[in-house]
TrEMBL record:
Species per Swiss-Prot/TrEMBL record: Actinomadura latina
Protein name: Zinc-dependent alcohol dehydrogenase family protein
Alphabetical keyword list: Metal-binding, Oxidoreductase, Zinc
Molecular-function annotations in GO: oxidoreductase activity; zinc ion binding
Pfam families: ADH_N, ADH_zinc_N
Gene3D superfamilies in the record: Medium-chain alcohol dehydrogenases, catalytic domain
InterPro entries named in the record: ADH-like_C, ADH-like_N, ADH_Zn_CS, ER, GroES-like_sf, NAD(P)-bd_dom_sf, Zn_alcohol_dh
SUPFAM superfamilies in alphabetical order: GroES-like, NAD(P)-binding Rossmann-fold domains
Length: 364
């Protein structure tokens, strides 16, 4: 199969031929039709994830596609089914899974981290009956691929961990894929949203996703104060969707009394330890919650809102690239919105010169 791989942390990734993944027992091999480029992939490439131990390594954990093959014991899915998958793939057997909390499975696997991921023609998924989510026929692969990490993560962070309700104020720090998803989801729930970022383009996208107010963090010495002013005294729920010591602190300081901070963005040790205002957490009875994806069995309400048009994740897709474009997208900045890769998409042919100087495009 064609895949993007790198041979060491920080080494240049490249497109190359690699062996197709074998089908796991009780698992499935998915033919990848679309896969997202996420900041978590960049963290993995930089060596911030201890699960990546063997090289060459294939990144990619947001995906949608078609089942190519199933292993022995799979009963709920069959080859040809259109599916997506949460980035946390659960074992289905540990105490956390037994409690319905597969997103914190004690024996979890994650494509693109514990094994080769979805920047490839094919990817293997373990425990298919636990982890695969069937796609409605009307949902495109590109839309579905964004659900598995950023959108589903934001959905659970806003609704289950944040507990946002209509009329409340929500603050979202960082308007990348997770942040823009959170803005859209909170606004759809009836909340008033303050979006925070340093990019004017990202803030404009946040407005289109339903933000009531925006704060340009590059133009304020005290970002949290600007959020509190915009939110009439502070947010009821605030999310750090970026993951940095500065945004984690600002998110907590954006809250009103008895508010709730949800940490979604990764805080790797290399970024430094976040200096959190625990004195305020105590005095104001603030809550701090982590949020880590969403289990496959919990996708139903989100999928219904997408099908009904109340949530429109397709609007968050900024660019769709070929697999050949993926190395640059992984190592660089991807711009506002979500960047998607379609492994079977081929680059547009270059114009060829006709006699007489006119340009034509090969019609393949």
């Amino acid at each position: 199969m064609r895949a993007v791989a790198y041979d060491a942390f920080g080494a240049p990734p490249s497109v190359r031929e690699l062996p197709d993944p074998p089908v796991p027992p009780a698992g499935a091999v998915i033919r990848v039709e679309a896969t997202g480029v996420c900041r978590s992939d960049w963290h993995g490439w930089q060596g911030h994830d201890p699960d990546i131990r063997v090289f060459p390594h294939v990144p990619g954990h947001e995906l949608a596609g078609t089942i190519e093959e199933t292993g022995a014991g799979v009963t709920r899915h069959r080859p040809g089914d259109r599916v997506t998958v949460p980035f946390v793939c659960a074992c289905g057997r540990c105490p956390s899974c037994a409690a319905g909390q597969q997103q914190v499975c004690e024996a979890q696997t994650q494509p693109g981290f514990t094994h080769w991921g979805s920047f490839a023609d094919y990817v293997a998924i373990e425990n298919a009956d636990v982890n695969l989510v069937a796609l409605p026929d009307e949902m495109s692969y590109t839309t579905a691929a964004g659900l598995g990490c950023r959108f589903a993560t934001a959905f659970r962070a806003v609704t289950a961990r944040g507990g946002i309700t209509a009329g409340q104020w929500a603050a979202v720090h960082g308007c990348g894929g997770v942040g823009l998803s959170a803005v859209m989801i909170a606004a759809a729930a009836g909340a008033r949203v303050v979006a925070v970022d340093v990019s004017p383009q990202a803030l404009e996208l946040a407005r289109r996703c339903g933000a009531s107010a925006v704060v340009d963090a590059s133009g304020h010495e005290d970002v949290a104060a600007a959020v509190r002013d915009a939110a009439g005294g502070g947010a009821h729920v605030s999310l750090d969707a970026l993951g940095s010591p500065a945004t984690a602190r600002a998110s907590i300081e954006s809250l009103r009394r008895r508010g709730r901070h949800v940490q979604v963005g990764l805080l790797p040790p290399g970024a430094g330890r976040a200096d959190l205002p625990m004195d305020r957490v105590i005095a104001w009875e603030l809550e701090i919650a982590g949020s880590h994806g969403m289990a496959a069995h919990a996708y139903g309400p989100m999928m219904e809102l997408v099908r009904a048009g109340a949530l429109r994740p397709e609007l968050l897709v900024g660019r769709v690239l070929t697999l050949d474009d993926a190395p640059a997208a992984l190592t660089g900045t991807t711009g506002p919105g979500i960047t998607m890769i379609e492994p079977r998409r081929r680059a547009a042919p270059k114009p060829q010169e006709r006699q007489g100087g006119a340009n034509v495009v090969d019609g393949r």
